[in-house]
Amino acid sequence: MDELKQKIKNTGLFEDDDKVEILASLDALTLSDLKELESIIDEFDAKQAEIQTEFNDKVMTELDNIDKDAKDEDRDRTHHATDAIRAGLTTVLSA
Amino acid sequence: MAENTGETPIQQLEQRAETPETPAAIPESPAQSEVLPPAEAPVKSETVTQQEAPDLPETPNQKRFRDSFISITNDAKSKLADLRQRAGEKLGALKQNDQFVAGAKQTAVGVGIGLVMERLKLRYTPNKDFSNLAQDVAVGLGYNALINHFERTMPHAKKSDFMISSLFEIFGRNQRTRLDTFLPEKPVSKKSWIKHRIDESVDEYNARMKLPRGSVDRQINPLRLVNPVVVSGFRNMVAGFQQL
Predict the structure, then answer these.
(1) Tens of pLDDT along B187-216?
(2) Which residues of B28-54 are buried (b: 16+ CB within 10 A; e: fewer)?
(3) Which among A25, A82, A92 has the least Cβ separation from residue B230?
(4) Eight-class DSSP state of B226
(5) What is the pLDDT of residues A47-78, one digit of tens each?
(6) Which residues of B touch A22 (CB under 8 A)?
(7) What's the domain of life for this entry (chain A) (predicted)?
(8) Going by fewer Cβ within 10 Å, which terminus of chain A is more open, N or C?
(9) In whole angstroms, what is the distance from residue B231 CA to residue B223 CA?
(10) Residue A62's Cα: distance from chain center in Å?
(11) A8 with A2: CB under 8 angstroms?
(12) Alpha-carbon Rg of chain B, whole angstroms?
């Protein structure tokens, strides 16, 4: 039960107010419902992480392509700019 | 606490999200934000700044990146919406407890990704005890504060708003909150518990800011409650986009 409570606290599926509501209602759920709830949260969080990774990869690929397509005289400036975006995006998504 | 207007402090703060925020320097590091200084007086009006730095046309690379970013964002939004919808349907199947089901369905199905901007969760300062006040300020005002701050302090930052709004919209919810610090050990009345936490948080915020009791609503600078790491990341993205 403690592990499930922790998952409820950490999941991106529920708003905080709803987490309070759900945690307060856990005792009323059957064992099978608790397992199903945990399964739903696990699946949601795992797939949400996949979507975030895919989003990050696609943006990084586009930045790589912009780098590759830069003209020689613009290469350094372009790479400096794309690097800043890469660093920023990584920071935001990992915060 | 704030003057008694019949509204909660958070409702009052959310209403103020519609008005321009007081400009102030953002925290540069988590360590610096441990002690929050009082809000500073405006040093420059937004109008003046905009006159000094009119938006320039997008460069070809900026347009290329913007178009790609928006396309990638829309794809992620769509997938997240489908994911949330499926989770909501599964939650709806938990029929043993009507109250639980009602709450869960409202959460997962009724709240569309695009409609929850003001409720998105942005992790805020590393201060441990800001709890609900800091969280709701960050959620309700952090986005606006961040956009306003960049537009005041960085040339042509308005062109980068699409990155900030997109990331808030699709992944802001994914930011872990400090909820685990404040959840009660035993089930209690949700309404009374939240009110208690808000009252405590407002009082503590006033104390930390060395403000008189009741002044938090007028003095608060929401940007100070946004996680400085997130601010730093967005600053890099905005700066990079300007150079692209």
Answers:
(1) 445 455 445 555 555 555 556 556 566 554
(2) eeeeebeebeebeeeeeeeeebeeeee
(3) A92
(4) B
(5) 999 999 999 999 999 999 999 999 999 999 99
(6) 100, 103-104
(7) Bacteria
(8) N
(9) 9
(10) 20
(11) no
(12) 20
For residue B103, the chain A residues in CB contact (below 8 A) are 18, 21-22, 25
Domain residue spans of chain B: 116-244
Read off the tokens for B127. Answer: 């201060």
Cα three-residue angle A29-A30-A36, rounded to 5 degrees? 85
Q: How close are the terminal C-alpha atoms of chain B, in Å?
A: 47
Per-residue pLDDT of B37-90, as tens digits, reads 333 333 333 333 334 445 678 899 999 999 999 999 999 988 988 888 888 878
Q: DSSP labels for A8-75?
A: HHH-SSS-HHHHHHHHHHGGGS-HHHHHHHHHHHHHHHHHHHHHHHHHHHHHHHHHHHHHHHS-GGGH
For residue A31, the distance in angstroms to the closest alpha carbon of chain B comes to 11
- Tokens at residue B83, please? 């994911």
> Residue B238: which residues within 8 A CB-CB, separation 6 or more?
A88, B150, B154, B157, B160, B163, B164
Number of Cβ within a 10 Å radius of residue B205:
25
| pLDDT band at residue A15 using 50, 70 and 90 as cut-offs | low
Residues B80, A85: C-beta atoms closer than 8 Å: no
Q: Per the structure block, which two tokens stand in for B27?
A: 């925290």
